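S1.2 Input.
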Amino acid sequence: MFKSSLKLFKIAGIEIRLDYSWFLIFAILAYYFGFSYFPQLLPGLNAGIIALITIITVLLFFFSVLVHELSHSLIAKSKGMGVNRISLWIFGGMAEIEKEPDTPAKEFVMAIAGPVASFVLAVIFGIVWFFTRNFAPVGEPAAYLAEINIILGVFNLLPGYPLDGGRVLRSIIWKATGNLKRSTFIASITGRVFGFILIAVGIVFVFTGNFLNGIWFALIGWFLQSAAYMSYRQLIFDTSIKGVKVKDIISEDIVTVVQETTIQELVDDFFMKYRFSRFPVITNIHSKKLIGVISIHDIKAFPKDEWNNITVGEIVKSISDGEIVPEDMEVSDAIKQMTKSNSGHLVVIAGGRIKGMLTKTDVMNYMQFYSELH
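S1.3 Output.
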């Protein structure tokens, strides 16, 4: 999602981004309010005023979603958990928090903050409605926004992980049992059940003539059950690599390529022989100074009839600081760095020399062995 989004601004150091899918839901809501909802409630207003009310209402709707996610994020930051960004997208909003809470109390407070923020907004919009209820162009949008924030708060309190209510449920079970894995499993199962129920409701709506609401319920249900499943899988992954160092899983049997090697030689003598997906490129066999890493994808941009005339040193990209890690770094931190640098590899340096490489394949292989042994 991050790759297909626009940066808007920062709040309290948290980057706010707009996913391109947001424009789809914005258009749907704008169409609904502009051509159906407000024309029925506010007959007699000209199209320009209706359009202005529609745009303001839709923007305030997403402002409500942003406040909901921002409340989670600010609590997370206050508890020592970093927050990289919040993205608004087709299903609402998503806060990218660097790590999970390490105690049930932190989980509970962070989870409940979102619904509380939505209910506070509902009260604020309700007060606006009360004082403007006789002036429909303001009162009607305020009434809708009050209702939608109540719905947003109540929906997120459903006890299905990863909804806020699911996180509250997990925190309670976690506190009672002291077992994070078991509490996450129970909460995620509940989340999947709710997801499948929403899908079933959506199907019923579709076959009873309520097509749009049916599709919407089904999509939300599909997203919820998928997110619940993936959240549990993520916990298993995090548990398996907790405390594991980069040096514990890297392959030190590393093969380097000197910069004078042609692409044809690289293909014939390295890719075809060793079957590795990438190789570190060095200046020469004596100094072994690292230049960068060449992957099989890097050579696809060049015609095969030119491979004998182009050297690896001419096309390899200089290695960046984000691609280099120490051997004592935890694998979890290395994966975050790999994601942040948008790279499929990391080079491990020890004593000024290349000690090995860490790739996503190395991590997945380790995960496979871990799962078979536990």
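S1.4 Remarks. The chain has three domains: 1-157, 162-242, 246-373.
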